[in-house]
Amino acid sequence: MEEFLELLEKRRSVVAKEMAQPGPDADQLQRILRIAARVPDHGKLAPWRFIIFSGEARTAFGQVLARRHEELNPETTPEQTALEAGRFERAPVVVGVVSRVVEHVKIPEWEQVLSAGAVCQNILVAASAMGFASQWLTEWYSYDGEIAKSLKLAENERMVGFVYLASAMSPPGERARPVLEDLISEWR
Ligand SMILES: Cc1cc2nc3c(=O)[nH]c(=O)nc-3n(C[C@H](O)[C@H](O)[C@H](O)COP(=O)(O)O)c2cc1C
């Protein structure tokens, strides 16, 4: 347990451009997603779902990103378009986390979206505990309506982000953290 606490104290993202093979295999990914789905979920609504990108699907989705990038940026360069096409190839596995809010008399949208955010964090923690590198990214494509259509998102669905899973080319160093004392107050 002490080891797990130390892992939480030291957890760091590995930036996607520092990622390498291998990523989690099918069993490891299942385990990560099982852990992800253990987040607090008021009313057991499961207000989230996963979209997995691996293998050639990453290249195919990169083409979708590249075409949309060109549409939005007619003056773009071939270098930038190639960067967009390669985004999902930075990691062997990318998990898209979708928030799907349902109408409920007692449980507001805010709580359901928070639960979906917690799913992303659980993925990061589970992946770290299994020795994988991970990063939660939204970039531009999480917010684009046309990309949402190509992801077949329903009206009540939004991307919470994409969690990239891989091995690290090199371990990340420490980075400056907020001063905890500045963030804590006692209610009196
Ligand atoms: C919802 C959300 C979206 C994020 N999107 C991006 C992003 O698009 N690009 C980026 O460089 N970092 C993004 N980040 C930050 C990284 O996930 C990561 O936290 C950051 O690289 C700092 O690393 P650390 O987790 O080790 O502190 C996002 C974080 C969150 C919570």
What's the gist of this structure?
With 188 residues, the protein is α+β, with helices and mostly antiparallel strands. The chain has helices at residues 2-10, 26-36, 56-72, 78-85, 109-129, 145-150, 180-183; strands spanning 19-20, 48-54, 93-100, 133-137, 157-168.
Labels describing this entry:
single chain; 188 residues; alpha+beta; NADH Oxidase; five-stranded antiparallel sheet; 7 helices; globular; binds flavin mononucleotide
Low-confidence stretches: none
Number of domains: 1
Overall 3D form:
globular
The profile of the biggest β sheet is:
5 strands, antiparallel
The CATH topology corresponds to NADH Oxidase
Report the oligomer.
single chain
Strand content: 15-25%
Structural class: alpha+beta
List each distinct ligand once. Answer: flavin mononucleotide
- Straight-line distance between termini: 34 Å
